[in-house]
Amino acid sequence: MSYETSALCCCEYYDRNQERSHILTCCCDCEDLDEAFESLITGNQVSQKHKKGILLTMQNRFRIPWKGGAKQIAFDAILPIVIIPIMLLLASISLWWTFFSFTTVAIFLLFISNFLIRAVHHTKFFFVWTLTSVIVLYLIFEFIVIPFLEILLEENIALSMFIFGFVICLYLMKTRIKSISSIRESEAENGTSGQYYLQCTQCSICQLKIPDRDHHCVWFDCCIGKHNQCLFVLAIFFAIIALLYSSNLTLTSVCHPFTLYKTILLPDDCSEVYKLFELGLSFVAAVYSLIIAALLLVLLFHQILLISLGITLRDWTRLPLTKKLCLGLTMKRPNSRGICQNWKIVMCWTKNNHSISNQM
């Protein structure tokens, strides 16, 4: 369909049907929303089709006025930028608000994760949540915790290096995905892709064919396979160290610390942190860091177990509970080459290693 020749005003745009529209239509004319509202007031369940239609309509119409036509903004990607600062600000009011804010956000994440993954396969919500958490926590540490004058320069540099290591690993993970895609395209043109991609699996989220695919990490917005699993483990490791280190530095600055061993301090009494806004905000940021670190620690141990066993996350999820309780040691593992060889393949992955593993 051809576009109209007249220029768009700052509040007009072309929708996904290539029809001229206005951002005021965001407030009305949504068939899926009407159907969903009717289902709610009649006591019926809202169908998955209408849920997906509402989300797609919101993504298409959520725009801001801009010169030359309204610009589209990903609605799901904006949510973390709004939710995380509000959560931390509310949590800094009192202990009750801390519990209420974190619990509410946890329930919201459980609900929205299932909905977004089904409705929008390649959503940026989780990846933006990760980036927003890193940026907000680092800013709180640098501009609120550091002025307490309790943090040494070398401690701040060490924390920055851990965060830098996490960012580099995350960047290299995504770079290897692009490298895999370019290799596949070149080999497809030469007619030699069949041997190399014998064990290729197509990801239903990013629509890429990944060799020896393990899973798609929505929080890092990246497919994980043998080609970048080592970087994935390193990224988790650096994130855990940075979160634990920053939370300890923060808590020993805003709480009454005690000496564990020589210069190693641990927080003791944090009963007065809610008396000042800066103390409260720093405290809840540290608690948020500890929660994320605990979850990542479980993920790290799980990845170490899977690599050692030589199985993928997809294979693990298909195991019965009895074999999971035995840590998968009683299951058949046809692709396992032994613990040392499994780690060698992951740590020293190359195209040639993959071809050799396919022929074994």
TrEMBL record:
Domain Palmitoyltransferase DHHC, first and last residues per copy: 199-317
GO biological process: protein targeting to membrane
Keywords: Acyltransferase, Golgi apparatus, Lipoprotein, Membrane, Palmitate, Transferase, Transmembrane, Transmembrane helix
Membrane topology, from the record: Multi-pass membrane protein
EC number annotated for this UniProt entry: 2.3.1.225
Pfam families cross-referenced by the UniProt entry: DHHC (PF01529)
Top-level EC class: transferase
Catalytic function, reaction form: L-cysteinyl-[protein] + hexadecanoyl-CoA = S-hexadecanoyl-L-cysteinyl-[protein] + CoA
Molecular function as annotated in GO: protein-cysteine S-palmitoyltransferase activity
Record localization: Golgi apparatus, trans-Golgi network membrane
GO CC terms: endoplasmic reticulum; Golgi apparatus
Entry's transmembrane regions: 73-93, 99-117, 126-149, 155-173, 230-247, 285-313
PROSITE patterns in the record: DHHC
Family statement drawn from the similarity comment of this UniProt entry: Belongs to the DHHC palmitoyltransferase family.
UniProt remark on domains: The DHHC domain is required for palmitoyltransferase activity.
UniProt-recorded name of the protein: Palmitoyltransferase
Organism listed in the record: Phaedon cochleariae
